[in-house]
Fold these 2 entries.
Entry 1:
Amino acid sequence: MPANNGNAGGTRLVIVESPAKAKTIAGYLGRGYIVESSIGHIRDLPERADDIPEKFKSEAWARLGVNVDHEFEPLYVVNPDKKSQVSKLKQLLKDADELYLATDEDREGEAIAWHLQEVLKPKVPVHRMVFHEITPQAIQDAVSNPRSLNLRLVDAQETRRILDRLYGYEVSPVLWKKVKPRLSAGRVQSVATRLVVERERERIAFTSAAYWDLAALFDVGRDEDPRSFNATLTGVDGRRVAQGRDFATTGALKSADVLHLDEQAARALATRLEGAAYSVTSVESKPYTRRPYAPFRTTTLQQEASRKLGFSAKYTMQVAQKLYENGYITYMRTDSTTLSETALAAARSQAVRLYGAEYVPDKPRVYASKVKNAQEAHEAIRPSGDEFRTPGETGLSGDMVRLYELIWQRTVASQMKDATGESVSVRIAGTSSTGERVEFGASGRTITFYGFLKAYVEATDDPSTDRDDSVSRLPNLAEGDPLTALELSAEGHSTRPPSRFTEASLVKELEDREIGRPSTYASIIGTILDRGYVFKKGTALVPSFLAFAVVNLLERHFGHLVDYDFTAEMEKVLDDIANARAERVPELRRFYYGEQGDGLKELVSDLGEIDAREISSFAIKDTDIVIRVGRYGPYLDRDGARVNVPEDLAPDELTAEKAEELFNQPSGERLLGPDPVSGRTVVAKTGRFGPYVTEVVPDDEAPADGKKRAKKDAKPRTSSLLKSMSLDTVTLEDALKLLSLPRVLGEIDGEEVTAHNGKFGPYIKKGTDSRSLASEDELFTMTVEQAKELFAQPKQRGRRAAAAPPLRELGADPVSGKPVVVKEGRFGPYVTDGETNASLRKDDSVEQITIERAAELLADRRARGTTTKRPPAKTAAAKGGAKAGTKTSTKTGARAGTK
């Protein structure tokens, strides 16, 4: 129901995107306002052929949803699941005197507002209402100061949508034909996948190098705290000892000027230094200053929530959306690090109250944006209101309070003083028994004034990196001080390949390269995970072999489409359109048709040069083995011999040794014997869907009817093993029983009754009616009389047995507040809060899934809605609705009636 605050001097209809946002805003507006939600986008380019209006179906461009022959006019249709909501909005508008479009203040929100105006066709004054936080004052200010629709923002968003549609609908079919059906390509998604693949290529090409040094524990010989400290060998006879940074990715030294110690040399040097005298040769002290971190913008929030809370980018945005819609934080899709005057005052006053006036500088801190093409003039992400609520004052719980606390701490800390202290670097010298002059180094840091670190310390991607508040004190040392080595040992190290991307580091990489928009990163990462291009090992993003094949094809034949600079340049083009420095149609024409035959259309027109087998084949170094990506997954090929590759095997782990190991594993095929009736050989095998039995059809087998028939027409019988059977113990007798299925029991009421072993267990079938069996044994023992009794009973829905206890209890869902558990279902394990169910994905396990991951799966399931059948596409009502929601003209007249 819309939020109705009565009528006082006319009715004003306010439309926002979400029901939660509508509910919050309705509570802040006075009488005379009706607040309703559009529930997101109400219309878009057609997704299915059935969505295309009849009059356009014969057009060559109709499948794209964009008229590439005439000014790249988009074909918009009202989304089938939004038609009822559009009707509701139209009905509400009939009784309204004014319309306020209160969608988000970014390009996508501006486009939603424009679509609402185009579809609703209001005859009353229209106002664009914008705000970046949902508080009583912000909403009243927005109502009092409306603006016009910004058609430049609409143009930029429409151009983005058309670019993405053309890229996806033209390039994806190439992947279907040359790699695997049902794959997808995307303007930013494919580039993100390429980044992950390139990092894995670097890991595959990487050669580790071993190097050694000495670690010492020195004592100052005085009674003080600390009295001893650790130091590392840095040089021998004036030559610097090699460290990890001195080695190339090939494992070779970058320079011959450094001394590379191996284990033998390091241990021998340690022996020669036994009993040596040491002294301090230099002490260098420098002041240490660390400035506060800027308030959060979208990408830094995603990165920090990943590091500190373990949230995925997608889940972070889902929780942040809830906080925003319920009035706890400002708008969460922003490139800005700016705080308003009221926010600066709120942060400073709270810092004074919590930490004291000595922790707050005389003047507010102002942060310049590091994003070159910052989109709109939003604020940073901060607690909403003129006075910030502490986490305890919000009444929030679960992940919502955890994310709010992160935002609150960061905002308050941004207005506090610098942390100051001192960093010290010490050099120690000694002489070996053979006269070698050695040098050790140690460093320390003390913090004398913690400043903003009292409120907030940023996490790091590398666990070996010290946090900003870490302290390592050294004794009070002076040049010439004698030292005694309490311990001296040789230590071995090896260089490591570049780390795989995590969600946090991939977000940072995309932003650093200016690829895509920060607001889209969460969905991009979600897409490449869902499509199977990337999977997770812990927090690391690992590309699949399928991703290697896709990126290989795109790099070779659509090189500039996955070029990092080209993709970043497209973002600048969109910014130029938004800022009236470029026009939509010329830019789209340049992208699609090109200037010298180098446009997208030309690239997808000639696919003859693409060798599908070559694209999906990768040689394994130092072997005659090739890994190939087939329609059913990756496999190894050696002169025609094949073996499947485990789905969870990371590409850099498929070494020559691992490939040989896979080939040497038992094939999983067992010869059981001949079928006494047909004479065919019966074997047990392992397949993609588990163990099964089948029969081998000889090439020269004569058909029973005497007619000549191709071998492909002589299909072997096949049956999956029962749950009580295993590949190692199944017998020929068992196999023959399985191959006899489905078993005919007889007839009931003139209809044949058969017993089947189905995907969800054993059952009997009569026509279109069926009944589950209590056990697998009944497949072979059930009689037609027993079947008649079973069919006479009412069909039971769901499980007949008592509900099984949950596999795990995870905690409360941050959205519903209800307990989340893991259960075993017909389709495998799933999580549920009692209202929403979500299946575990390929990379999830019952043992390791967290409440954060479960909440993410549930939120994603809610966002997709329940699965319902679409109404028939060709009924008169559906046709009329499609036509009514169709738009092929340009945005002329959009300013009319808009204030």
Note: Confidence is low (pLDDT under 50) at residues 709-713, 798-802, 866-899.
Entry 2:
Amino acid sequence: MPRRIPRTVLDRMRTPGGIPGFLKSASVCALIAGLLSPIAPASASETETARTSAAANDYCGNQCSDILPPGQNGNATLAQILLNQAFGTQPEHAEDQLGPYAGLAKGYTGLTNDKINTFFNDASFGVPADQVASTLKPAGRSDVTIVRDKKTGVPHITGTTRYGTEFGAGYAAAQDRLWLMDVFRHVGRGQLTSFAGGAPSNQGLEQQFWRHAPYTEADLQAQIDNAVATNGERGKQALADAKAYLDGINAYIDASDSGRYFPGEYVLTGHKDSVTNAGTIEHFKITDMVALGSVIGALFGSGGGGEVNNALSLLAAQEKYGVTEGTKVWESFRMRNDPEAVLTVHDGSFPYGTRPDDPRGAALPDAGSVKPEPLVHDRTGSAATSSATGASSDAVKAASSSARRGMSNALVVSGKHTASGHPVAVFGPQTGYFAPQLLLLQELQGPGISARGASFAGLSMYVELGRGQDYAWSATTSGQDIIDTYAVELCQDDYHYLYRGTCTPMERVERKNAWKPTVADGTAAGSYTMRVWRTKYGPVEYRATVGGKKVAYTTLRSSFMHEADSIIGFQMLNDPGYVKGPESFQKAVQHINYTFNWFYADSEHTAYYNSGDNPVRAGGVDAEFPVWARPSYEWRGWDPATNTADHTPPSAHPNSIDQDYYVSWNNKQAKDYTAAPWGNGSVHRGNLLEDRVRKLVQQGGVTRASLTKAMADAGLADLRAEDVLPKLLKVISSSPVTDSTAAAAVSKLQAWVAAGGQRTEPSAGSKKYADADAIRILDAWWPLLVKAEFEPGLGSELFEAMTANLPVDESPSAAHGPTGSHAGSSFQYGWWSYVDKDIRAVLGEQVKGPLARTYCGDGSLGACRDTLIRTLKEAAGRTAAQVYPGDDVCAAGDQWCADSINHRTLGGIKHGKISWQNRPTYQQVVEFTSHR
């Protein structure tokens, strides 16, 4: 049968889940029968089973594994969507990786090497002959074959020509993710509502991303032209690869349209007619790939921003304490280079983003003058409702904060400390949980290409994270600052500014969207215009006055207008003729301008490199704050026509080869290397990996199983319970606890800490937590104690300003965090380091890099204890329904559900919830046994 079809859009996106109740009536059977009849039977070439041998040049020795839930198949016909909505049935391979992935949460404790593939897929090259499910010569081509395996349906694409290989990659991607790819090319262009519906969540999503990358069609094409022109033969090859890939996508569109097995979401959103087949699925073009890339870059690879928020909190601190003391207080909370922070690179210094001795050029706003630049204009209909304007406000906060999605982790151990003598790696990206998944799996074998792994849908012309013949690689988000804020002085009116002494008009870029109700999204008709004012220093984000002068604050990102440049690095990673060891790996990822930490392992070596186009700033400029848009404060070598500048050399980026071990969970990369997000202090979720891996290395004999167990164990830990709660309890227990309510709460918390401080079920499928009361108490207590500990000393205004820089909490159920609820990734952003350092100071313990003041009880142990006990009693009295108020996924009071991972539907197929784990979405476990 022809392959399946997807669904509708990101975390907060409205999906076809709102299909009317008629689907549950008896008539659904007749409807489905009618819908099944137009589907053309598969040709023999699509279904015949062919023998295929495992590809040559696989040096992993059956010791490479991977997993990507919920399943490879992200497409569903209309009939399959209706069956899923009515009866919960799943298309083939839509969720067959979800069970093994979920099972690791309780199955890891007894894990051995021979049981790894109980919870992961075999990621060896090729497909054994008895495991071939189907072979296909896409569009009848003789130069490429797509073989899919029985267990997971992953495509193994083998081409005899480069064109055929890439054509097959595009065809297979469309088979598995066509609807999702279509959704995201519209997100990248700021046209989601017109395409998928005007739900407030869709409005917020397109506003968030288009604000980040407000490109015209000419801008998108110019980026392609530049990437090709500046990269010689590799640039030409990338263009040829992209065109072949698009040809494959479009061939599938034509085949599925004529065969009537295209994604059912096209019918549900009004783009196709299920009876007459009227309507059009637009072909993909090369600029769509740049639009898609801008979304992925904004989500995971663009560190920086937040300079205006930084300025506002600094001014609040100076207002509270005076300039000198206020600056000292602010710097202590900022923790640019905290000596207690966990590091990925253990040795050396890599100064970047450090505080200048004599800062100059700062353009801090006058008090009360900052106003966000409106993005949305001319609202009509449902675009003018309170829910729509609320979504817009959330989009502004998400776009302007430095607390962006980080996620992803890596554990890599040198062969010096493993049982086999070969390096072992367990690593992968945390990209959230969606149905279908943003990533897809594939194997590519062709001239100059040999890799298996994961790629973002619509950008899968190369494997982006995965393994080659004798090496594997992965990435985590690094977050170093490549975005600066400039204050451009206005002249003539609000839409002209001074550029190097000349009054220059801003460029107006608009996107007009309108929508009407569909079966998938019943939101009433509405419309609006998104308008961005662009300057040579980037888009306008705020308006303010500085010293009485009217200014616009703009954001300049080094990767702006360069979304396509990273394609060369990914091309190199797929090329076995280029990557032959750790040094060539590092050179490959130097071509990637996204802000990522890259990790590598082969049979002999490990390596690390931090990528990103780090601009060389003018001397004395502090990147934490807005600076004047004047030549003396511009990036060195900056050309506004191309947005190119001098970048720090590769040697200045944190990098390493064959360190004893590497860990990364979006923590600080190296000494003196400042990351844009706040919170890189004494307690970070990176400590959960560091503590476990360091212990394994000290013991020696590390195996794939033991390193996977360390990752899984950290993935169930409550960071607060493991690293902060024992110190809080130490303060409380400094005197006998006489209050019965407080004593009972303390007893429960102590028992939980003694049991390991994990958020885990007593048995798989119980859908409740062991130590549920203790977890409820801490979840309720944390925001109460932080506020009571710090607000009296900071004052309400400064406390609020500081929480704008760094959220107080990001527990699994904390929907207020930047990741959102039901997303798995947790404990990245929070005030754990502040509480840890402050409480240790109260206890009289040594604190390296302390806060400028002691806040809990104003430094008095007794007063601090009283504060903790008072707030603990309040927390203990809160019911589960108060702590977990419920949402559109869970009933109030359901603690397990509040934490649970829910695959957000981006289309018509839904999946069940799984128990919380804090681990990569796509994950590899690798240990190569030999080398070329």
Note: The longest helix spans residues 232-259.
